[in-house]
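Reader question, answered in our methods column.
A reader sent in the components of a multi-part assembly and asked whether the whole thing could be modeled at once rather than chain by chain. We filled in our standard form and ran it. Here is what they sent:
COMPLEX SIZE: four components
ENTRIES:
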Amino acid sequence: MSPRSRDDVVRTAGRLFAERGYHGTSMRDLGRELGLLGSSLYSHIEGKQELLVEVVERGAAFFQDAAEAALTAAAEPRLRLRAVIAGHVAVVLDHRHEVRTFLSEAAALDAAARARVITARDRYEQSVRAVLADGVRSGVFRADLDVKLAAIFILSVLNSVDRWYRDDGRVDRKGLVDAVFDFVIRGVS
Amino acid sequence: MSPRSRDDVVRTAGRLFAERGYHGTSMRDLGRELGLLGSSLYSHIEGKQELLVEVVERGAAFFQDAAEAALTAAAEPRLRLRAVIAGHVAVVLDHRHEVRTFLSEAAALDAAARARVITARDRYEQSVRAVLADGVRSGVFRADLDVKLAAIFILSVLNSVDRWYRDDGRVDRKGLVDAVFDFVIRGVS
DNA sequence: CCTACCGATCGGTAGG
DNA sequence: CCTACCGATCGGTAGG
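And here is the structure of the entire assembly that came back:
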């Protein structure tokens, strides 16, 4: 057993937080998963809360990066919307643990970190709204679209993907993106 | 302070489980909320897990009842779909704590209760699929609709409502139901 | 990264 | 529903 890196610790913490929740995971649980004692974790980190903050901020960063990439990848509103959907699905499925912790464990964060998470989510939601508003302005999406509600509905579908999607299931990732896009585009067109 | 009923205990437990999670709620927290000591709770219940099981099963029952009511309220597929959406929104907003616990704390249940919850969710999802499949059969919904995926997308939107909806917000409950129905009906028509 | 440990808190019980 | 507890486990520290 080679020595564990700080990154190993944070990644494994993310998995356990996603599976059992922050309060359902003890430092001894985490140590056991890594092949060491709970007390040994404190040579890598200062405290349990620090682990949660780092996992959640990794989740937030994945979304931030994906949004920037999607928004520069295309200019036409429908293509942009598809890029956002594809990026979101990729983030959710490539980083399930960090994303699930980011989406579900914010209540366990200390006030300062929780405020940052909420800000990050708001910013991301704004970029989805911007794509929709842009499409309404250019006449690609319907003029009476409620942009705020539509953004919430789209994000609800996307954020739930990790709750049911299986890579070995009937639908592959591209098929999933197609299905979400198809469903959503009818709602906004 | 009048004596607390078992129902008071279960309802307050539901609120705390929804707000802080099962593992984030101690029996002393729950006692404090009810104006008594943690140890006094054991005259009402046998254990902490029993509280979780009961909260979750109340959540499941609300959905079950709503599904039955919606399916008998209308026969035409679009009206049925609207009734399902309206019923679901009402359950989510009228029983936020039980619903949030039902949706988010299944992992904290013992194996037997968790299996029952999963069965209840599957049955409910089946009734949503049945409405969609019925609409496809009668030609009201599009023939190439992926009923399984559509049901998941619709439920994703509905189950997320309690995460963002405020009764004092811009949209009232009927407006919310209209918006969800409008969004969804375009996706299936 | 382990040994050896700390005070605090956990779910829960006996007896009234 | 409280008093008075129980053993187990919690996050975390000192010292090596």
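What stands out: Residues 111-137 of chain B form the longest helix (27 residues). Residues 3-4, 36-37, 39-41, 43 of chain B lie near DNA strand D (CB under 10 Å from a C1').
Send us your own complexes using the same form.
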